């Protein structure tokens, strides 16, 4: 589950004359993750050390001059590059620089030059790429496959185009954006490189967030050739509240998360002063934060920190987007039945989140993390206990996953190392799920820690069917070896071990199609035992004496029936051919038959009672009334 | 047609009595049935199941069994008496003490010469049927334990008797028991309880069939005295058996309300050995089926739930005809309500008392569909308990509400009522003319100056009423020489005419001015069920059990033009398909063309000015007409205006202020007052 942490102010904003402007032209990363260069909209550039919240240096151009694009840091030369009054040889739109890439200059008419080449020949002619009346609205640069791309978006008479340029090859790809509702232009763009494609994310004032994927090996554009249509898919239709969005921005944080600013929180009315993180895969709101003061629709993100100008300050908000899993995306567990036991944290999807994490607890986490990889079992235990007791678990959610993963990987690597209690504790926090730490359950199985297995099956909402089946097999196998038994109504003998563990297996979430192939791997003996067990449960349920046996979490009748169906489905032919199964199947059939009869009777009752309902609707007529009728 | 203000009355708590016994006379096609209150009813199955005769009950008379001997009807009951009924005067003809304690059963031999009764003291008594009476002949060998059921072998030589735990077969000549068939008790808890053989049937092939309290229908070989077959048909009692005349079908009635049919057939094709095979189950009752009759075409059943059910056997009747429809007879085919039109009063007739009610009032006006605010609630003015043991057979309230009369089989009582709006006083008229001993029907003239009472042989006694005295005026006698009782009587509004109808289907009209028979309406084959004389045209309108309507001009002494047109064109098939008779008929003084009549499920206003519906016309067209714009209605309307808003009607009448009174008695209300059935009703069956 993604999280936004407590932010802090980096600097105050110098209000420009124009109130709708934040006064910040751009924020660029500097030498490392902790330094940024902030260019204000007039004359000055300031270097900040982010974690210290303090400026390290500042430059100002002469009075009368203005900086027309944000200053960038050239990591090769350790220099800062800024443009004043647009001018180099032709009007400059922006200078872009990314770590590992060379600074490039994008001219207002669409030409792209490497800074070096431009500086070596300042008076070189700059061609016009754009058409008349076509103007750049947004641009960025992306490193993809060791090549640098300059991406910019233009507008021409209401049409929007996207250009991909490789400065050193002079190859241009030009795409036409599909038209949104008439008159709507994209409010913000964000581009990132993933899987040999450049992913574009753009937000329209009607709250629609589109994603377009452009291949970096796209066809080069012939001169004057038609722009290709840019395919897009709607990622979200964000709630916009009243009217259209004014100042808003969407920024892709990773492949599954998008930060959005200036869009209303779905459960907090129409106010647009929110910063939210959405999961694109599951379309769920992951975290939200109300920003005080005006939102300018500007948003930058550098090394897990969001930079957002609002009101009279520029805030830095650390965030975390752990690897997305169904469980974390949904934010709640599937077993709604046990809601009472679940912590509220899992249903916080729609409640306003005011989650905070102090620097202190973050620090603890990192300390604990480092100790898990080396310290002996007892110390790890102590550390984790300490961590869990010190902080609000809600704040810890992302780090619990990291902790568990590191403990598991150490246990896997070192057969002597195993911390069942600590792992159980971590599972108990209910901040874990299978997809966050896929090896945990398998480790528990391997170490025959059935308690932990059960706990995982109980608390993980996303145990894959293969793993569920592996657990089932292990339980059956170990019960075959043990001799403590429970005798069911038919005198069939059931091992208690299985009796206890099986219950959890039955209650895990699964999908028939995925489970079926794994179920087929069971041997016929295992199937018979399991079926026996299911029948036993079924009978007990029908006698209505079982529901709260031993204080165990018990599966519902429907869950039991589903498993019976699945098992029969997977092994019917085998069972029919197995002589030992015959009695079992006949018993089952007899019982099911009687149940069907019972239910058909119940159906009749229902029918009759429905009739009663109908009768009630009839108008009550008393002993006497005087009515008016009309005959025609 | 217009708007009507309707007094919707549901406070008549009429409760029919449970059916106890039944006997079907296949020669006359009459079904006699007795009810728990001792009343006897005769239905004419040949005339649309019309209830042509009712003999009121009597306190202390409980009829346990009925038996026809040719046209004569006998009953026996737990009071220990055998009664023969006078079906012409609707009263017991004589009653004979059997001297054997309570009598459980009575049955005659097929020759009709002897009656056998089964007594509590263990004797079977044989009576000889004589011309006018019966005579005790002898006792068969006395047994230990009561005789519950009896059946003669068709030859008349043997009698089977159902007892406790056994069946005995007697030689009717010698009186000795020849066989003892032991009937097995029920299982479980009922093992300790004696099994009661509620019913036996002795067939010509010497098969004896029994139905018992353990829920069994058993087939016995009467020659060897061995049990052939046992059919367990219910968890409760098999209370009644009835065999078809050709002995190919048998019915068994159970406490569960079911009737189970058995048929004597080969169980497999190509096999000549026939056996009794259970074939069908009918479930038309909610309670015990106490009485059964197997007619040639139908299953007739009745019991605790008070309804007489005629369920045609579909293989015996033509399908999709009137005859093939299930019939439930819930209400008597005569009116139990008299309406004091001018006074806004209603008189309700129960078998033990009368209730006089004044209707409520409302001053509001409303649009159709509205319920008006009731300004004054209806009020029960008098509850009059009858005197003596005999139940009330008829009653009447004068139109002005000033007189009230009722009759039992032994006396007529007349009361003067004085009501001033808040207080009511009732005075019994002390000296009634001696000639007025009992009446089959009572009726006041419209000006309340005369009381008409029909007595023996369809004659009518006229009594003049005045404040000071009531005087015998005259006796009107029909010339036909009929011996049948009058079941309908109607005086004209103008005081000129009086019409009577009797069970011979005769309708006589008397001139009240001349005090003599004016005319006899041509006899129609079906019995009239309602009739009335039009206040201005003096036309007599009659409706018959077969649903035919006739209008006869008393002045012209011939059927009117409208009546002929109606007969020529024929009534609509949906009108003829109704299965309850019209029991009351009245006119609308505001519109002389309107005739108002009702059966149990609807009331109808016939507008004689409108065209008659032909067979293709949409007959029940009120909803259609309502949806049409007004100008188009006339082209779609026909003379039968039928309203089904009010149901299970006991009376529909028109008051002097032109408001309608409908007296409803929902069958559900009756059912809710019945005792709980033996078995909880199974849902959805």
From TrEMBL, chain A:
It is found in: Nucleus, Nucleolus. GO terms for molecular function: RNA binding. Residues 382-632 form the Nucleolar protein 11 C-terminal domain. Coiled coil: none annotated. It comes from the Eukaryota. Keywords: Activator, Nucleus, rRNA processing, Transcription, Transcription regulation. This is Nucleolar protein 11. One of its GO terms (biological process) is maturation of SSU-rRNA. InterPro entries: NOL11, Nol11_C, NOL11_N. The keyword Nucleus applies.
From TrEMBL, chain B:
It comes from the Eukaryota. Pfam families: WD40. GO terms for biological process: hepaticobiliary system process; maturation of SSU-rRNA from tricistronic rRNA transcript (SSU-rRNA, 5.8S rRNA, LSU-rRNA). InterPro entries: UTP4, WD40/YVTN_repeat-like_dom_sf, WD40_repeat_dom_sf, WD40_rpt. One of its GO terms (molecular function) is RNA binding. One of its GO terms (cellular component) is small-subunit processome. PANTHER family: U3 SMALL NUCLEOLAR RNA-ASSOCIATED PROTEIN 4 HOMOLOG. This is UTP4 small subunit processome component. It comes from Myripristis murdjan (pinecone soldierfish). The lineage of its organism: Eukaryota, Metazoa, Chordata, Craniata, Vertebrata. The gene is UTP4.
């Amino acid at each position: 589950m993604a999280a936004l942490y407590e932010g802090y102010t980096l600097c105050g904003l110098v209000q420009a004359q124009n109130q709708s402007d934040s006064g910040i032209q751009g924020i660029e990363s500097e030498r490392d993750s902790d330094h940024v260069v902030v260019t204000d909209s007039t004359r000055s550039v300031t270097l900040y050390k982010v974690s210290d919240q303090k400026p390290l240096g500042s430059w100002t151009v002469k009075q009368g001059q203005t900086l027309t694009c944000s200053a960038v840091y050239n990591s090769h030369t350790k220099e800062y590059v800024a443009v004043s009054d647009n001018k180099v040889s032709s009007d400059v739109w922006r200078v872009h620089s990314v770590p590992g890439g060379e600074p490039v200059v994008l001219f207002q008419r669409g030409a792209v030059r490497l800074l070096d080449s431009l500086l070596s020949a300042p008076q070189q002619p700059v061609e016009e790429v754009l058409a008349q009346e076509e103007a750049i609205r947004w641009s960025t640069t992306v490193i993809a496959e060791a090549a640098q791309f300059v991406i910019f978006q233009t507008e021409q008479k209401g049409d929007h185009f996207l250009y991909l340029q490789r400065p050193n090859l002079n190859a241009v790809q030009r795409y036409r954006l599909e038209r949104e509702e008439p008159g709507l232009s994209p409010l913000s763009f964000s581009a990132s490189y993933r899987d040999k494609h450049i992913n574009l994310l753009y937000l329209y004032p009607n709250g629609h967030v589109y994603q377009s994927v452009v291949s970096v090996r796209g066809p080069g554009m012939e001169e004057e050739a038609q722009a290709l249509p840019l395919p897009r898919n709607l990622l979200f239709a964000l709630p916009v509240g009243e009217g259209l969005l004014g100042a808003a921005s969407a920024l892709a944080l990773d492949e599954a998360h998008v930060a959005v600013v200036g869009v209303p929180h779905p459960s907090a009315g129409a106010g647009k002063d929110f910063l939210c993180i959405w999961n694109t895969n599951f379309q769920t709101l992951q975290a939200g934060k109300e920003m005080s003061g005006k939102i300018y629709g500007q948003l930058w993100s550098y090394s897990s920190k969001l930079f957002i100008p609002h009101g009279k300050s520029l805030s830095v908000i650390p965030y975390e987007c752990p690897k997305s899993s169904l469980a974390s995306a949904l934010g709640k567990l599937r077993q709604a039945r046990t809601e009472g036991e679940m912590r509220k944290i899992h249903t916080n999807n729609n409640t306003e989140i005011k989650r905070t994490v102090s620097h202190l607890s973050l620090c603890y986490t990192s300390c604990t993390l480092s100790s898990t990889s080396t310290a002996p079992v007892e110390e790890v235990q102590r550390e984790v206990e300490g961590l869990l007791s010190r902080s609000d678990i809600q704040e810890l959610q992302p780090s619990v996953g990291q902790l568990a993963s590191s403990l598991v990987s150490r246990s896997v690597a070192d057969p002597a190392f195993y911390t069942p209690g600590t792992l159980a504790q971590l599972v108990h926090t209910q901040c874990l799920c299978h997809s966050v730490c896929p090896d945990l359950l398998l480790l528990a199985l391997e170490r025959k820690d059935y308690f932990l297995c059960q706990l995982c099956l109980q608390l993980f909402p996303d145990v894959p069917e293969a793993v569920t089946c592996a657990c089932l097999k292990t339980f059956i196998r170990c019960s075959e070896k043990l001799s403590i038994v429970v005798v069911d109504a038919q005198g069939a003998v059931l091992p208690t071990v299985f009796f206890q563990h099986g219950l959890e297996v039955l209650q895990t979430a699964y999908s028939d199609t995925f489970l079926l192939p794994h179920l087929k791997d069971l041997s016929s003996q295992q199937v018979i035992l399991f079926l026996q067990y299911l029948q036993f449960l079924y009978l007990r349920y029908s006698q209505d004496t079982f529901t709260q046996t031993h204080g165990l979490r018990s599966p519902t009748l429907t869950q039991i029936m589903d498993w019976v169906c699945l098992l029969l489905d997977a092994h019917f032919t085998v069972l029919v051919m197995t002589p030992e199964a015959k009695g079992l199947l006949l018993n089952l059939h007899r019982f099911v038959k009687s149940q069907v009869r019972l239910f058909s009777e119940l159906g009749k009752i229902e029918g009759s009672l429905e009739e009663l309902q109908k009768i009630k609707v009839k108008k009550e007529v008393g002993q006497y009334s005087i009515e008016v009728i009309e005959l025609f | 047609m217009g708007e009507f203000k309707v007094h919707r009355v549901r406070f008549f708590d009429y409760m029919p009595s449970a059916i106890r016994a039944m006997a079907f006379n296949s020669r006359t096609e009459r079904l006699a049935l007795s009810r728990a209150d001792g009343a006897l009813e005769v239905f004419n199955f040949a005339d649309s199941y019309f209830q042509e005769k009712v003999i009121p009950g009597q306190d202390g008379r409980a009829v346990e069994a009925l038996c026809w001997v040719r046209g004569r009807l006998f009953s026996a009951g737990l009071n220990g008496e055998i009664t023969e009924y006078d079906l012409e005067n609707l009263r017991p003809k004589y009653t004979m003490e059997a001297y054997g304690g309570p009598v459980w059963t009575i049955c005659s031999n097929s020759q009709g010469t002897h009656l056998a009764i089964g007594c509590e003291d263990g004797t079977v008594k044989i009576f000889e049927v004589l011309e006018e009476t019966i005579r005790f002949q002898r006792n068969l060998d006395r047994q230990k334990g009561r005789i519950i059921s009896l059946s003669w072998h068709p030859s008349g030589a043997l009698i089977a008797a159902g007892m406790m735990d056994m069946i005995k077969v007697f030689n009717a000549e010698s009186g000795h028991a020849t066989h003892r068939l032991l009937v097995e008790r029920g299982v479980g808890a009922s093992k300790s309880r004696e099994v009661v053989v509620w019913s036996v049937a002795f067939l010509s092939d010497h098969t004896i069939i029994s139905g018992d309290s353990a829920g069994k229908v058993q087939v016995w070989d009467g020659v060897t005295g061995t049990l052939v077959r046992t059919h367990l048909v219910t968890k409760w009692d098999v209370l009644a058996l009835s065999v078809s005349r050709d002995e190919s079908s048998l019915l068994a009635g159970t406490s569960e309300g079911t009737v189970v049919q058995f048929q004597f057939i080969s169980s497999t094709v190509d096999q000549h050995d026939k056996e009794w095979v259970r074939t069908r189950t009918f479930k038309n009752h909610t309670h015990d089926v106490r009485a059964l009759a197997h007619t040639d075409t139908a299953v007739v059943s009745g019991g605790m739930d008070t309804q007489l059910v005629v369920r045609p056997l579909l293989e015996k009747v033509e399908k999709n005809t009137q005859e093939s429809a299930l019939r439930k007879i819930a209400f008597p085919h005569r009116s139990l309500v008299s309406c004091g039109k001018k006074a806004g009063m209603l008189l309700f007739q129960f078998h033990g008392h009368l209730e006089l009610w004044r209707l409520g009032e409302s001053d509001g006006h409303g649009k159709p569909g509205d319920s008006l605010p009731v300004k004054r609630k209806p009020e029960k003015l008098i509850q009059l308990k009858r005197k003596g043991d005999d139940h009330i057979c008829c009653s009447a309230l004068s139109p002005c509400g000033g007189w009230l009369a009722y009759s039992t089989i032994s006396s007529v009582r007349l009361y003067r009522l004085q009501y001033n709006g808040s207080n009511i006083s009732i005075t019994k008229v002390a000296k009634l003319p001696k000639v007025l001993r009992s009446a089959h029907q009572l009726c006041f003239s419209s000006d309340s100056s005369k009381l008409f009472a029909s007595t023996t042989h369809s004659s009518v006694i006229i009594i003049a009423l005045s404040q000071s005295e009531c005087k015998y005026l005259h006796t009107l006698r029909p010339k036909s020489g009929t011996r049948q009782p009058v079941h309908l009587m109607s005086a004209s509004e103008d005081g000129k005419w009086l019409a009577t109808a009797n069970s011979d289907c005769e309708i006589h009209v008397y001139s009240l001015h001349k005090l003599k028979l004016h005319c006899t309406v041509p006899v129609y084959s079906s019995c009239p069920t309602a009739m009335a004389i039009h206040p201005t045209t003096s036309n007599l309108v009659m409706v018959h059990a077969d649903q035919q309507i006739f209008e006869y001009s008393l002045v012209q002494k011939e059927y009117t033009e409208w009546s002929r047109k109606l007969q020529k064109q024929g009534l609509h098939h949906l009108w003829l398909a109704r299965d309850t008779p019209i029991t009351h008929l009245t006119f609308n003084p505001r519109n002389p063309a309107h005739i108002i009549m009702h059966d149990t499920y609807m009331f109808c206003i016939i507008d004689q000015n409108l065209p008659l519906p032909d067979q293709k016309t949409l007959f029940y067209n009120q909803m259609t007409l309502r949806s049409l714009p007004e100008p188009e209605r006339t082209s779609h309307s026909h003379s039968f205006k039928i309203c089904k808003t009010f149901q299970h009607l006991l009376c529909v009448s028109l008051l002097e202020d032109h408001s309608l009174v409908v007296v409803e008695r929902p069958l559900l209300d009756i059912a809710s007052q019945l005792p709980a059935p033996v078995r909880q009703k199974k849902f959805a069956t």
